[in-house]
């Protein structure tokens, strides 16, 4: 973006400015207003109360919060698209924006009915952004205000029985006024003419370009739709016509005075639209899954609650059968918040990159290596084709076993795949030829309700009490409440309630002559809901922090954001090596001012990102005064290749799309990077070049052309952009987007209410008389 002289002045005067901010960034300071995320979350809490409030003892669970966050984040990310005015109801794009809302609600319902709840939530989030922007960007609130009508939502917004038609291109809607400059707030409060519905034009949206100087603008320092063509003096004197109510800060929002009224209406509209256009249209069970009331399936019971999605159980059995070992069924279960199994076959590097990136997050990968033939003949170590390494980077294990131990393998996977477990210790290390002992100390706190210790590549391990004596529960307790499962070189030891060791710091001692992995996990109310390195995205005045889709850059202090559920004190984050040694305490990452209702938010800069792989830990003291420890099982690898891909929200079947990926070599030597792009729907058509040579510090780019084929399944999908260095480490970036059905024209025959912008005054009059329209 070209920064005008004016906008250079403005941000300096107010420091960091954020507007109708998509993220809950208040904690960062200097933000005034009610963000898209807050609006979405407040609406969800009210909806839960409406739907489930009658159930005694019902409170939002972590699952509800995760579902809500998926919706809220998809909403916020829409601001990364600055070019399509109909996403924001800009430039009188009423008809297109209304069509978009109708289409997205239909998509969301179709995705939920097909069991793709993640795609459904993303579609809802994207629609909510547009719905909420209507109130901040149109003149509806101004018209109500002038008529002296009470605040109410615009009838039919996002409903398929209603269409909204804009005024003609030449119809004048705004008068000139002085815009805010530095500390002067301007005088644009009353610049909208009449009662007709209009919305502000925003520069850089080619389909909705301002054609008449008497149309309203969005306003604010980054919108050039008013100032283009004016000389410098005119720019200073009146940059008028802005009407946005995005924030309560006048520099950004000429109609800041109406901000909270617009935002409250946006919340009311969100509640109305989600309830009527999504929730009420779904079977109860699907509606419950979608908004997080239930977990997607009952893993203990193994009975499918949702008949259309595969269970992990089915998947496990299938994936162990050789003829079913291909990438496709693997990818199908990855959308669930469960652990993932893959068979250690020789899959193409790009396929592995896709699985590696997809697993990420809070799931673990168990790579399954099956020996065939007579068990006694299998003495050579098998080739795991690199899957063992991928398993350990996610906190999982490589399971090597003989074909006839398949039943044991399934039992082992059952023991370790506990969806509600939090990680307490996650270690990967190399043993020694002499089978030396390694020791780790870890706390068990009173919130731990079940415990699993699992290892792979270990010949034996032993547990010691805080006082140093070996831990040995009574025979009765041991037989009834502990369970040992072994397959090949992997062991899992499970403890349930009475057999869980009492709170304290325990020591585990293990022997291994090979590389090994160790995981200690348990069920607990203290859990890390999210932890990520963050970057800024979004349109200039709507910026927010989102997870970086690639590896953090070695040596940089990256912004960190995290949410942790539960009650605790003396908490701190730490980076540790994958062998468990402390690298650095993350003293800058601290509790943020406004915690989410059911979780505490943390923000801050990390210490320098280590060059070697590391693991993130969170420690502190619980309500009962016990020390506790949690780990993010995903091991983090840093990179010295910066890889910047534009964030993708959605793609449409049959529509070509081009994305430009930028690379910067931060190593001090030149290197050639082999580049690739791979997605789970085979939509990548071609890359403009196979490799890029970069001098130290130099940047380059490549284009990726996509064409999602007509036979692809719609729904949530993923793409990995990667660059593999010949001499140095590469990097890769994962993005998830919704693949939408072909854009079909809307059926106008269902429309009952044709609402013309030039008749908005009459519409309000009828509403004031108590009529529906
Ligand atoms: C498993 O869940 C189903 C559906 O919720 C229920 O009907 C069934 O009784 C459960 N079975 C067991 C063994 O708990
Ligand atoms: C596997 O097969 C071997 C011999 O073929 C047998 O000794 C062993 O008990 C079998 N293991 C299982 C778990 O069936
Ligand atoms: C052990 O791990 C190291 C890297 O962590 C790897 O280079 C080595 O090949 C591994 N050894 C075996 C036997 O897998
Ligand atoms: C945290 O403490 C509050 C107040 O004591 C209590 O109501 C709440 O249930 C606790 N939360 C958890 C997750 O333990
Ligand atoms: C994080 O670091 C950047 C510079 O790298 C600095 O501008 C910013 O203020 C820091 N943020 C916090 C919360 O410390
Ligand atoms: C989809 O169609 C393309 C050609 O248009 C074909 O190459 C591909 O195999 C088809 N995929 C499926 C899953 O049918
Ligand atoms: C508003 O515009 C529509 C379409 O241009 C037109 O049919 C209608 O007569 C207009 N209404 C008024 C009150 O001018
Ligand atoms: C494709 C590729 O090379 N990906 C690399 C991205 O960077 C991380 C960290 O260096 C590596 O672990 C990946 O292999
Ligand atoms: Zn917007």
TrEMBL record:
Residue intervals of the VWA7 N-terminal domain: 61-274
Residue ranges the record marks as coiled coil: none
One Pfam assignment: VWA7_N
Origin superkingdom: Eukaryota
Domain Hemicentin/VWA7 galactose-binding: 433-525
Keyword line: Signal
Protein name, entry field: Uncharacterized protein
UniProt source species: Arthrobotrys musiformis
Phylogenetic classification of the source organism: Eukaryota, Fungi, Dikarya, Ascomycota, Pezizomycotina
């Amino acid at each position: 973006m070209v920064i005008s002289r004016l906008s250079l002045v403005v941000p300096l005067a107010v420091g960091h400015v954020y507007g109708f901010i998509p993220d809950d960034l208040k904690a960062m300071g200097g933000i005034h207003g009610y963000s898209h995320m807050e609006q979405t979350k407040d609406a969800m809490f009210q909806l839960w109360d409406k739907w489930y409030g009658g159930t005694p003892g019902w409170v939002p669970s972590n699952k509800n919060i995760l579902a809500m966050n998926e919706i809220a984040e998809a909403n916020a990310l829409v601001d990364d698209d600055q070019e399509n005015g109909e996403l924001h109801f800009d430039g009188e794009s009423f008809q297109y924006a209304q069509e978009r809302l109708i289409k997205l609600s239909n998509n969301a319902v179709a995705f939920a009915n097909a069991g793709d709840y993640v795609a459904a939530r993303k579609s809802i989030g994207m629609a909510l952004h547009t719905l909420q922007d209507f109130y901040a960007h149109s003149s509806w609130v101004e018209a109500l205000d002038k008529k002296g009508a009470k605040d109410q939502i615009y009838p039919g917004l996002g409903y398929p029985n209603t269409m909204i038609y804009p005024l003609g291109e030449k119809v004048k809607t705004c008068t000139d006024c002085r815009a805010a400059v530095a500390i002067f707030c301007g005088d644009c409060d009353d610049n909208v003419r009449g009662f007709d519905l209009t919305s502000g034009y925003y520069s850089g949206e080619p389909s909705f370009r301002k054609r008449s100087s008497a149309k309203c603008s969005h306003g604010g320092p980054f919108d050039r739709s008013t100032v283009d063509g004016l000389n410098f003096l005119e720019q200073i004197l009146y940059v008028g016509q802005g009407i946005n109510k995005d924030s309560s800060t006048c520099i950004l929002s000429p109609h800041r005075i109406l901000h909270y009224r617009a935002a409250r209406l946006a919340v009311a509209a969100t509640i109305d639209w989600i309830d009527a256009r999504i929730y009420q249209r779904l079977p109860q069970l699907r509606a419950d899954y979608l908004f997080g009331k239930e977990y997607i399936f009952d893993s203990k019971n193994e009975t499918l609650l949702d008949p259309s999605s595969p269970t992990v159980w089915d998947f496990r059995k299938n994936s162990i059968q050789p003829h079913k070992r291909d990438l496709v069924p693997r990818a199908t279960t990855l959308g669930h918040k469960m652990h993932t199994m893959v068979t250690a076959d020789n899959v193409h590097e790009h396929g592995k990159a896709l699985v590696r990136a997809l697993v990420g997050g809070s799931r673990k990968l168990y790579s399954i290596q099956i020996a065939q033939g007579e068990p006694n003949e299998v003495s050579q170590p098998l080739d795991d084709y690199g899957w063992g390494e991928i398993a350990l980077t996610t906190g999982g294990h490589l399971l090597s076993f003989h074909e006839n131990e398949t039943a044991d393998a399934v039992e082992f996977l059952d023991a370790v795949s506990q969806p509600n477990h939090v990680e307490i210790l996650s270690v990967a290390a190399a043993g020694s030829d002499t089978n030396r002992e390694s020791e780790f100390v870890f706390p068990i706190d009173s919130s731990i309700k079940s415990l699993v210790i699992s290892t792979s590549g270990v010949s034996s391990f032993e547990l010691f009490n805080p006082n140093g004596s070996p831990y040995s529960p009574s025979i009765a307790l041991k037989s009834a409440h502990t369970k040992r499962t072994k397959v090949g070189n992997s062991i899992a030891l499970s403890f349930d309630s009475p057999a869980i060791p009492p709170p304290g710091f325990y020591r585990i001692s293990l022997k291994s002559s090979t590389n090994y992995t160790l995981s200690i996990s348990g069920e607990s109310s203290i859990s890390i809901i999210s932890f990520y390195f963050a970057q800024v995205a979004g349109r200039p005045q709507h910026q927010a922090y989102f997870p970086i889709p690639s590896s953090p850059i070695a040596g940089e202090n990256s912004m960190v954001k995290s949410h942790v559920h539960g009650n605790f004190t003396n908490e701190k984050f730490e980076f540790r090596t994958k062998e468990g040694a402390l690298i650095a305490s993350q003293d800058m990452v601290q509790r943020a001012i406004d915690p989410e209702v059911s979780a505490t938010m943390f923000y801050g800069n990390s210490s320098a990102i280590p060059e070697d792989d590391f693991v993130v830990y969170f420690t502190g003291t619980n309500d009962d005064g016990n020390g506790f420890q949690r780990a993010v099982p995903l091991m983090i690898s840093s990179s010295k290749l910066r890889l910047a891909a534009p964030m993708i929200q959605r793609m449409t079947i049959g529509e070509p799309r081009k994305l430009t990926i930028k690379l910067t070599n931060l190593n001090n030597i030149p290197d050639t990077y082999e580049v690739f792009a791979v997605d789970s729907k085979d939509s990548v058509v071609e890359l403009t070049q196979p490799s890029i040579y970069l001098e130290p510090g130099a940047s380059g780019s490549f284009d990726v052309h996509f064409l999602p084929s007509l036979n692809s399944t719609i729904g949530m999908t993923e793409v990995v952009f990667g660059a593999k260095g010949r001499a140095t480490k590469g990097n890769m970036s994962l993005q998830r987007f919704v693949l939408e059905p072909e854009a079909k024209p809307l059926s106008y025959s269902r429309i009952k209410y044709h609402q013309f912008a030039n008749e908005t005054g009459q519409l309000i009059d009828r509403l004031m008389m108590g009529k529906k329209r």
